[in-house]
Amino acid sequence: MSAIALLAEQFDRALIAAFGADFAGTDPLLAATNNPKFGDYQANLAMSLAKPLKQKPRDIATQIIAALDVSDLCEPPEIAGPGFINLRLKTSYLEAQLQQMLTDDRLGIAPVQDPQTIVVDFSSPNIAKEMHVGHLRSTIIGDAIARVLEFQGHNVLRLNHVGDWGTQFGMLITYLREVYPDALTKADALDIGDLVTFYKQAKVRFDDDEAFKEASRQAVVGLQTGDAEARQAWQLLCDQSRREFQKIYDQLDIQLEERGESFYNDALASVVRDLDILGLLQEDDGAQCVFLDGYTNKNGDPLPLIVQKTNGGYNYATTDLAALRYRITTDRADRIIYIVDVGQSSHFEHVFQVARRAGWLTDEVEAQHVPFGLVQGEDGKKLKTRAGDTVRLRDLLDEAIDRAKADIEQRLASEDRSEPADFIDHVATVVGLSSVKYADLSQNRTSNYIFSYDKMLAMQGNTAPYLLYAYVRIAGIGRKSGIDFNDFSSAINTVVTLSDHTELVLAKHLLGLEDAIEAVAIELLPNRLCQYLFELSQKFNQFYDQCSILQAKEPQRSARLQLCYLTAQTLRQGLSLLGINVLKRM
């Protein structure tokens, strides 16, 4: 249990002892502070209790301290200002916690006691279209959130809700029959590049030719009713798209289980039927709708959520309702997280409301839409190519790697250093992809962010290269000391000791990893972990600059090497939760 969790627990007991059971569970409002004047943590609950207790905050703080037992963790608490309670962790407590971390491959972080089944719905590209920059944030954010929850010990279902069904396939199947009549017998007749152009050409035909449009409508009927040739054409389009999607996922080290829209196709009719049985359906201009509570259109009339169109077809809302119900009833999910752009916020509010009114989504299941903003170019507008097209994701990643390689080659030349081509390629790939991921994850996901290769590849500031270099620096210390940091516990068995101020600052921050992970799991904001790791790198660099390590005398040398090891392990663990690999050399 982290220090802040232990302190919160002790505050709860103190409140009960001082003021009675009615105050059990009161939030102590503990906040970490880096200001030596205030100590390591500060609690301001005395001010919040002044009104209900009808006492002065300092008097309340005095009573809390009298009942507070934190002698194992902290120096005697102090009251400051109007009633703040300041707490300073004992050096002996810090040393004991670090000692425990040294012998635990989870760095002292225990798995959750009550693991949940959690669905994380992310990425979700569309069949017959290439993944573009718009899929970047969903894919990267979703993967990071899934990794954090998995590390905590939850059973995570990583679901890819691909767009592999719908009326557009009638258009594609019709055009496939017309232009590539042998495609159904030659599975390799098309590749994804051709398929993207193919989609655009099919759309032109659909928009300009009424006969083609009618044939497309009939092809949809054939697909939905199980026509063998239509299904074969559909399968071809899906398989070719998946192969290209998988190249991106492999490059980014993303694991996903695909459950596309087609997976829920057989359940759509029952969704509509059951909503009708529950008395929620109303007909509106021939469409079957659920009118939403608290939502109106621009005319002030109740807003409908259409679940069956006038032609009898279904839409995204129907599919999302079917998927939500399946995840609750069959997957037995305790928590369902949708990583989808902010533009879909209203859609999910509507779907969740209907699911609650139908009784499918209850208080026992938490359904969350995790919105994110746009990726913008350096001009502040939506990121596009010079031709005005949406940036393909594979082009964006390839350019990041190419730029990282150019930077590495320039640095090696300036250092008059020679490295083999495979080393340069490996480092460039890790740095390039890590920079793209970290630049995204380090931003508050709810905001738009400016995509800049120069900023994300910079060696200074809150960037992946800065964090990776901190790890490389520690790995270098390990090599010079003759110690394999991968087997540190068997190499040095001295007791952890802390004496210098920068050692204490670094030690306190190392103990904060569990709190950073917990914050991401609750708030679903990966930038909390990024900020923690950035500050860890800064604090290590301050320690490195001010404390002799390899030249120090024993036992101080070993103690400082232990701090180096724990910093390296913490960086590696934290970065891995962001989907980022470390490097031993750069």
Strand order of the largest sheet: 7-6-5-11-12
For the terminal residues, how far apart are their CA atoms?
36 Å
Q: How much helical structure, as a percent, in the residues?
A: 40-55%
Shape: globular
Number of strands: 14
CATH arch. level architecture of the largest domain: 3-Layer(aba) Sandwich
SSE class: alpha/beta
- Strand-residue fraction? 5-15%
Count of individual helical segments: 21
Mean pLDDT: 91
Segments where pLDDT lies below 50 for 5+ residues? none
Q: What is the CATH topology assignment of the largest domain?
A: Rossmann fold
Radius of gyration computed on alpha carbons: 29 Å
Please describe the topology of this protein.
Elements: H1 3-19, E1 30-32, E2 41-43, H2 45-53, H3 57-67, E3 78-80, E4 84-87, H4 91-102, E5 117-121, H5 136-152, E6 155-160, H6 168-179, H7 192-208, H8 210-224, H9 228-252, E7 257-258, H10 268-277, E8 282-284, E9 287-296, E10 302-308, H11 316-329, E11 335-339, H12 345-357, E12 366-370, E13 375-376, H13 393-414, H14 421-441, E14 449-450, H15 453-456, H16 464-481, H17 488-491, H18 501-510, H19 513-523, H20 527-546, H21 556-577
Parallel strand pairs: 5-6, 5-11, 6-7, 11-12, 13-14
Antiparallel strand pairs: 1-2, 2-4, 3-4, 8-9, 9-10
